[in-house]
Amino acid sequence: TQPDHITFVGVLSACTHAGLVDKGLEYFDSIKEKHGLTHTADHYACLIDLLSRSGRLQEAEDIIDKMPIEPDKFLWASLLGGCRIHGNLKLAKRAAEALFEIEPENPATYTTLANIYATAGLWGGVAEVRKVMDARGVVKKPGLSWIEIKREVHVFLVGDTSHAKSKEIHEFLGKLSKRMKEEGYVPDTNFVLHDVEEEQKEQNLSYHSEKLAVAFGIISTPAGTLIKVFKNLRTCVDCHTAIKFISKIAKRKIIVRDSNRFHCFEDGSCSCRDYW
């Protein structure tokens, strides 16, 4: 059976998520050279994702400049995501500007760019992004996480105190946080979008919706029960690290399905190998 355009989207995506950069480049070249097919916008988007995630941002930019077709929103979003991971502000601005032209109503672009400014400590940049959002009437979607226990769905927002077991959840997270720090966990405050003291930033991170949902799942089920949590946005770097620690301390397998992929946490590691 001859592979078609769709086959290579699957193959290149797999290489991206597995971190197989050189293999992915090899497959990309083979589309034209070996199989006589033309490169589509999807193939280029996968290629830029592959290079951006691995930090090869200059290569990614060179390819964009030489592309025979117009880059689409998926390509620019992949580049922006890579810039966030690797802290490339100059290229992030280029990707964000392109995305503002294509889909000015998408809050994800503004949030990612603001995160990059925040990480660099450029709070004026964060304020500027917020100003543009206000002027264009763009509203960031609130992060939601939910878990089903005994056929009942429990939904959590960041800092949520409305749940009936809110007190127990927060107490449990407090104890977990202490154990996690003893095991070597350091809160990643880079992506907290407020210019506040480190201690306050840590406090903000402690009550992200996925942490609340995971904590509720653990206190509501017998030891060893699999925990399954869903989130409407991409899980943040700190929560990803924290849930790895939680899986080891609580001796639980924890599955989190965010807007990007499934994460299967077990004994201190994640199936995505910190590459998402």
TrEMBL record:
It holds the Pfam family PPR. One of its GO terms (molecular function) is zinc ion binding. Belongs to the PPR family. PCMP-H subfamily. One of its GO terms (biological process) is RNA modification. NCBIfam families: PPR. InterPro entries: DYW_dom, E2_motif, E_motif, PPR_At4g14850-like_plant, PPR_rpt, TPR-like_helical_dom_sf. This is DYW domain-containing protein. It comes from Vitis vinifera (Grape). Keywords: Repeat. The keyword Cytoplasm does not apply. Residues 184-276 form the DYW domain.
